[in-house]
Design goal:
8 helices, four-stranded antiparallel sheet, five-stranded parallel sheet, 40% helix, alpha/beta
């Protein structure tokens, strides 16, 4: 929340329903954005993590709300998720909760009921935040912030700043894992080259590590021309700063 305002993201493919819900919640004092599908949802999350998401189950494009809920919950265990479903089937409700949702509401719903559920979810979130010391960023286990991206150590991929999943080569993952295991330490270029030798990349010369770092910076840095997460240490090699955004 910024300045005490709760930020909501409504994911609903029906324009009338989306605009109606957004207008109602805006009138209730929330900061609300609305998107229609999975790609727009991922782009919105990459731009700014909301306090809570209202996520329709039935979406176009072959990716339903359950899949998006799992993706979002893996990215952040703190964000609130309320599933919006036209089905009253118990199976859908169970699947939604198992996908990481905090609550669900069946369409058509009374606006006041939706408002009550959002407020209840926010009260629970505030109570948990007050009871638990917060780290600078609360990522799911096995995930590490690297500049503008998030490294998934279990799956060996990056969640990029624009919301894409970037599958890493063995050499890229090994190199990033070395940085994660040695944060805020200047790592010598020769040591990095030795530890990453044997992967599928063919260049085994002086500049091999520099070329790999250049490619990785394009993936993790918000501005590769001015790297902050993977910094050059003159005369030594490179240093990973986990606090750099």
């Amino acid at each position: 929340m910024a300045g005490g305002t709760t930020n909501l993201l409504v994911v609903e493919d029906d324009p009338f329903q989306r605009e109606t819900v957004c207008a109602y919640l805006s009138n209730q004092g929330f900061a609300v954005d609305g998107v229609a599908d999975g790609p727009a949802f991922r782009a919105a999350i990459a731009a700014a993590m909301p306090d809570a998401v209202l996520l329709d189950v039935g979406l176009p494009g072959g990716e339903d709300g359950f899949a998006l809920a799992r993706w979002l919950r893996a990215l952040s265990p703190a964000v609130g998720i309320i599933m919006l479903t036209a089905a009253g089937d118990l199976v859908d409700r169970v699947v939604g909760l198992e996908s990481g949702a905090d609550d669900y509401i069946t369409k058509p719903f009374e606006p006041r009921e939706l408002l009550a559920r959002i407020r209840a979810l926010m009260r629970r979130a505030h109570a948990e935040a007050a009871a638990t010391p917060q780290k600078p960023e609360n990522l799911a286990p096995g995930r590490v912030r690297m500049g503008g991206a998030v490294l998934d150590l279990k799956r060996g991929l990056l969640l990029t700043a624009d919301g894409r999943e970037d599958t890493l080569t063995e050499g890229e993952f090994t190199l990033l894992k070395l940085f994660v295991d040695n944060p805020n330490r200047a790592l010598h270029r020769d040591w990095l080259l030795e530890r990453t030798s044997g992967d599928e990349e063919p260049e085994a010369f002086d500049r091999a590590i520099d070329l790999r770092i250049m490619r990785l910076r394009r993936k993790v840095e918000r501005n590769p021309a001015r790297p902050m997460a993977i910094r050059t240490v003159r005369g030594v090699g490179y240093l990973f700063d986990p606090e750099a955004g």
